[in-house]
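#structure-requests
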Amino acid sequence: MNRSVRLLPYFVILLVACFAAVLSPSSAHARDDRLVFKVKEVFSDGKGGRIWRQWRQSIPERTVERVEVVLTRVSGGDDTFVNLRYGDGETFEHGKQFHVRADQKETAAWEVSAPPLGQPLVLNAYNGEVRVDKVIVYYDKPGGAAIQRDVEDRWSNAGGGRRQPDGNSEYGSGKGDGEGDMEERCRRARRIRPPKIEVGRVKPSGGLFSKKYRVEGSMYGACIEEAGYFENGRLKERVEFPFTDEFTRQEFNV
């Protein structure tokens, strides 16, 4: 597994055009295992004279297991559908579309099994108008991931069908619960996404015409083996980043 973060020598400031659709804030009720948003608004793709409107909602940085949406079709036909994703990423469940076929309340659901990584939940409606009554976000229960890993490790150690790391395997080096085991957990991890890089400050370095810069910022991600500043495909300066399957934020200055 080769996962690298490359800070390119050219830094592009992306100006994100925020569409000024007036979205009234959703009221939220939280429990340890779920977060409920009462929305009660109509959303559409803006076609056929309809008003474009999407639901966007920032949520806490926790692993989301499942999202349910209670909704009703207001206009359109059997081809009216909604999808759900984080920010501008891929829609959940490999592009799953929930077709709203009846003019009565239905519940759409998506399996997520991933944290938002700073991105909001985004719901879009197509080929009609859909009224969303509420959105329910279900979280991992406290300790759930650790318990699952413990069960998997005990199953592996008991010879339950998983390949056990050893000194001759591609996964490990015989160090017990060390880097080899971490690599195996990263191989098994679900929905590990590319790390998020935030550039906070770029300042000149060296002489007036040296065209050299120092860059300050942070990286956020998991299962990152190597991070640093690369130039012409070669590592010029390494950024120390812990190799772990837990999501971690690390500051850098290169």
